[in-house]
């Protein structure tokens, strides 16, 4: 469904050239969840912008359902790092915005919006403005805003990072069931090794900037009942953590910070 | 801190808050008192006490209401026109950097020019009627709105554009849901500030080759040495400015309710 071939990207701002990604290759099958993990500044957000069609690769090619991804294609949803909510719209209007843009009839839009707000536990906050919410609540609004669109491809930039452990697990489970039941392809950027192992059917490990693919870890047991508590889960997180001891990978930075709020 | 974007600091309360209304009343009385004391001290017919001016204000024969309405019509039309010209153009320039690069130098070169000196040119081109007087105000205020909207639109973070575009937005959606609401509070601030300038331009435009409007009345009463009428007209003119200011403030609070919330939240976080 999503093919990434030899993608390079270099930022050009005011005469400065910042290479952010070099030689990224992978193929995502329909309904698959990929977790992307790598040190800070290695180009993870840039990769998502490319996949969403917001940026064009400097070199290489991305194909989504046979053509380049286009932002206005409306089958791809993106949750930005830092929520991307609009402070001038209420929670309800933020969540309904994508439906409104797609021309969904107001009554249906309203129903789906209320439904998803209830799912993320914000049913009473429809009339609030984002600035009146806590960080975790804002994050849930951002999640609701993408989930409500039922996209074919969901791109998420550290969507669960500001949540408490309980909410985080609930939303991880929700994401998992949505992806599996709707065959929704997902690319999830995370800093958290447990999260990557719990949600990623494959785990794409990136090097320091300019980001390359260091490894693609297969994770066939993901999605099974009770995986979070299994020995296989522990073994895989341990393996990943060891991978990050390599200085090329950002050294200790990521390998150890992963355990703070995991699964 | 949250008020740094507005030159005139404003309380984050609704304008009809009784405490604010009381404060307005107190300041009005203080000004009247100062005026009265000054008139006692000067003791000259050229500076009548406030009550005399007030009486002139409500004396039907002076026709102040008519002149007020003429002036109000001119300035309201001018401000609306300036808004409809300056806001879309400013948003467009803020969003299209290539075109902005061509237009901006011209804009900033002509921006400091006091448009009021173009009065003779405008009158030669558009005649001695209302149109010329309105256009002179439009010329002044459009610049302020345009430059404000442009600068504000340029400051929009790229992630906000990413955010809306990832929802499938068309270019029109970007303007409607992001750029317009984002710059609106700043445009209201520009309108409030330029309402003072607009009144000044109005006065100048009305003091020349016309027989209607408060500007004319002030000059005419001065010539007739009808000082109470002159002061009444001055009061009416400042009243016009005040009403405009309050309208913009109320409109901002109605259409940008989120700024009240955001400001309150910011204050709470500062402690
Ligand atoms: N607009 C930009 N202009 C120039 N350089 C940029 C721009 N955005 C990002 N970069 C650079 O590209 C690199 C990758 O940025 P990116 O935001 O993709 O990193 P990231 O992996 O998402 O980091 P983090 O985990 O901290 O979110 C960074 O080193 C940054 O310096
Ligand atoms: Mg990032």
Structure description:
Chain A has 263 residues and is an alpha/beta fold. Chain A folds into two domains: 1-75 and 154-263, Rossmann fold, CATH 3.40.50; 84-150, no CATH class. In chain A, 34% of the residues lie in helices and 24% in strands. Chain A is built from eight helices and nine strands. Chain A has helices spanning 44-51, 91-101, 106-119, 135-147, 165-182, 193-199, 231-243, 252-257; strands at residues 2-13, 16-28, 33-37, 59-64, 76-79, 153-157, 185-190, 202-206, 213-218. In chain A, the strands form two sheets. In chain A, strands 5-6-7-3-8-9 form a six-stranded mixed beta sheet, sandwiched between helices. In chain A, helix 5 links the parallel strand 6 and strand 7 (185-190). The model of chain A is unreliable at 255-263 (pLDDT under 50). In chain B, helix 9 (214-223) packs antiparallel against helix 10. The interface between A and B is medium-sized, with 28 and 22 residues. Residues 11, 13, 18, 20, 40-46, 81, 209 of chain A line the site of adenosine-5'-triphosphate.
Keywords for this structure?
heterodimer, A: 2 domains, B: 271 residues, mainly alpha, MetI-like fold, 11 helices, globular
């Amino acid at each position: 469904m999503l093919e990434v071939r030899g993608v390079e990207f270099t930022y050009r701002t005011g005469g400065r050239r910042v290479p952010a990604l070099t030689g990224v290759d992978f193929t995502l099958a329909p309904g698959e969840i990929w977790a992307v993990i790598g040190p800070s500044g290695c180009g993870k957000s840039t990769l998502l912008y490319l996949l969403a069609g917001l940026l064009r690769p400097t070199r290489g090619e991305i194909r989504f359902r046979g053509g380049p991804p286009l932002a206005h294609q409306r089958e791809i949803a993106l949750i930005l790092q830092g929520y991307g909510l609009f402070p001038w719209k209420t929670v309800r209007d933020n969540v309904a915005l994508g439906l409104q843009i797609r021309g969904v009839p107001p009554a249906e839009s309203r129903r789906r919006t209320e439904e998803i707000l209830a799912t993320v536990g914000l049913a009473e906050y429809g009339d609030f403005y984002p600035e009146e919410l806590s960080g975790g609540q804002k994050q849930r609004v951002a999640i609701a805003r993408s989930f409500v669109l039922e996209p074919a491809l969901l791109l998420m930039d550290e969507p669960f990072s500001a949540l408490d452990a309980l909410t985080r697990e609930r939303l991880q489970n929700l994401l998992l069931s949505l992806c599996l039941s709707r065959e929704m392809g997902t690319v999830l950027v995370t800093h958290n090794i447990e999260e990557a192992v719990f949600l990623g059917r494959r785990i794409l490990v990136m090097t320091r900037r300019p980001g390359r693919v260091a490894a693609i870890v297969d994770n066939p047991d993901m999605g099974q009942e009770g995986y979070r508590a299994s020995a296989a889960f522990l073994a895989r997180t341990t393996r990943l953590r060891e991978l990050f001891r390599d200085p090329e990978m950002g050294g200790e930075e990521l390998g150890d910070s992963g355990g703070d709020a995991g699964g | 801190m949250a008020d740094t974007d507005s030159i005139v600091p404003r309380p984050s309360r609704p304008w009809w808050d009784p405490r604010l209304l009381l404060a307005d009343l107190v300041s009005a009385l203080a000004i009247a008192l100062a005026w009265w004391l000054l008139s006692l001290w000067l003791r000259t017919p050229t500076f009548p006490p406030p009550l005399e001016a007030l009486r002139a204000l409500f004396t039907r024969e002076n026709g102040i209401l008519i002149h007020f309405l003429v002036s109000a019509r001119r300035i309201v039309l001018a401000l609306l026109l300036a808004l409809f010209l300056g806001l879309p153009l400013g948003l467009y320039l803020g969003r299209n950097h290539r075109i902005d690069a061509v237009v901006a130098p011209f804009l900033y070169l002509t921006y400091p020019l006091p448009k009021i000196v173009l009065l003779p040119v405008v009158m030669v081109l558009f005649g001695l009627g209302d149109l010329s007087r309105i256009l002179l105000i439009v010329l002044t205020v459009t610049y302020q709105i345009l430059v404000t909207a442009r600068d504000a639109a340029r400051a929009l973070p790229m992630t906000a554009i990413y955010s809306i575009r990832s929802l499938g937005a068309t270019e029109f959606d970007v303007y409607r849901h992001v750029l317009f609401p984002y710059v609106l509070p700043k445009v209201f601030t520009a309108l409030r500030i330029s309402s003072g300038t607009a009144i000044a331009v109005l006065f100048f435009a009305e003091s020349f080759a016309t027989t209607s409007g408060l500007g004319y009345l002030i000059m005419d009463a001065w010539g007739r040495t009808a000082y109470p009428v002159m002061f009444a007209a001055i009061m009416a003119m400042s009243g016009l400015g005040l009403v405009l200011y309050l309208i913009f403030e109320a409109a901002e609070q109605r259409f940008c309710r989120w700024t009240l919330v955001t400001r309150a939240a910011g204050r709470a976080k500062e402690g």
